[in-house]
Amino acid sequence: DTGVSQDPRHKITKRGQNVTFRCDPISEHNRLYWYRQTLGQGPEFLTYFQNEAQLEKSRLLSDRFSAERPKGSFSTLEIQRTEQGDSAMYLCASSSTAWIGQSGANVLTFGAGSRLTVL
Amino acid sequence: QKEVEQDPGPLSVPEGAIVSLNCTYSNSAFQYFMWYRQYSRKGPELLMYTYSSGNKEDGRFTAQVDKSSKYISLFIRDSQPSDSATYLCAMSPSSNTGKLIFGQGTTLQVKP
What we know:
The structure holds 2 protein chains of 2 kinds. Helix content of chain A is 0%, strand content 47%. By secondary structure, chain A is mainly beta. Chain A is globular, with a radius of gyration of 14 Å. In chain B, strand 9 and strand 10 form a beta hairpin. The radius of gyration of chain B is 13 Å and the shape is globular. The N and C termini of chain B lie far apart (37 Å). The chains are: A mainly beta, B mainly beta.
């Protein structure tokens, strides 16, 4: 078990470009979450998947953002037409619903994050 | 008003000190309370997980929840320079959701 992996760790792009982040969760975990963290703030929920189904999206997730988890394993988060306000750390986390009643599916394991800088 | 309020600090203490970190919240539906530690340019890692009111101890760390006051605390005894990090409180109403509400985080520096 290598934990939650995210790639790339840092992306610098120009305003208007598209970027894509990838997340590989812990293999036994069926839930995958995306959070965004800006400097000096706590993480904010964006969206989550259970297996391949996207079950909830935050209002923070504008139409320029799209997330997929096509085979219920890895996930991608794409941002189209990036804006300077998109600059943040994008965190991926995973958990298991098999833990309900014990430690809970709300026990998240986070990756190291993908830092986006939009110039 | 944010659902979860946390003093951002920074908090600077000498090695060996007892550290107290706190969060207040407004949503009485929160039942599960967590503390995460985040080192610079890293993802958060879970430190403590508690359900409802009461205390939980794990080594040098003690988490307290007072639901009547909507107030949670994390105490660190015998603080070490390696404890220098940002500490985030997080909450959820259910064990079935990973949609956590985080505080702003408190930055702690423990000086040797």
